[in-house]
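hi got a favour to ask and not much time before my train. below you get a single protein, a line of residues and a line of whole numbers that encode the local backbone shape. could you go over both lines and see whether the tokens make sense for that sequence. a few lines back from you is plenty, here it is:
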Amino acid sequence: MSSAHDLDGEPADWLHDNEALSVRFGLNAEDPDAQLRNQGAQVRMFTDARLRIAPDRLFPNVVAATRGAALSIEVRSRAELGLGFGFRIATGADPVVDRLYAVGRPEPGKFRSATVRRFQRDNRLITVDLMRARLSDSHDRDALQRLWTCEVSTWEVRQFLDPVAGRVFDERHLRFPPPPPLPRAGMRAGAVRAAPGGGDGAARVNAGVIWADGSAEQRFERIQVQAENDPLRQRIGLLRVHFFVIDAD
């Protein structure tokens, strides 16, 4: 008998901390291991979600995924100085990635984007599993609670060296020309995507955790950052997400 609970929330294409930081969780379609495990899988995002069994508990940002699904995480942030941003994706236990940088060609409105498909240190897929499935002698509930949530934060880059070009870039010497301004009507962070498996604001879920499982290949751009804002005290944005596993019954 399923122990899943009904979750109600507002379906979302992106999750936002503020107008300067947006994050989108999707399925990893690049790595062979991910392609196999993601057959028939889905990922859904919600804002202002509540479990019907505990209506007083509000989850501002939720990602609900099929058990075992391999994720792709897209971070989109504004960098006012025009150089780019640093970012960190971390659970309460371990970082998925830490001090990676988006310094590629800017988008309109001084935005840049970066996509992550693997753990930074060990080339493993970013997957979602049931919290209760990971309970064991070595993984108690308190430890797993720290894997239930994930925080994504960004901060400004002030100066960096591109070792390939052999040049240093700062506010006076930009790597790329300034991007065009946003259209007057404003720009939404990315194209609207229909939620797989239905677009309503309800799902049957269980608590989930971020887990490293399966192999992944992704190269991150190598630069030498020489000056940046404090990642803790001078953030552009900080987004906190709770993970759930979609009930298959």
The CA atoms of residues 31 and 216 lie 6 Å apart.
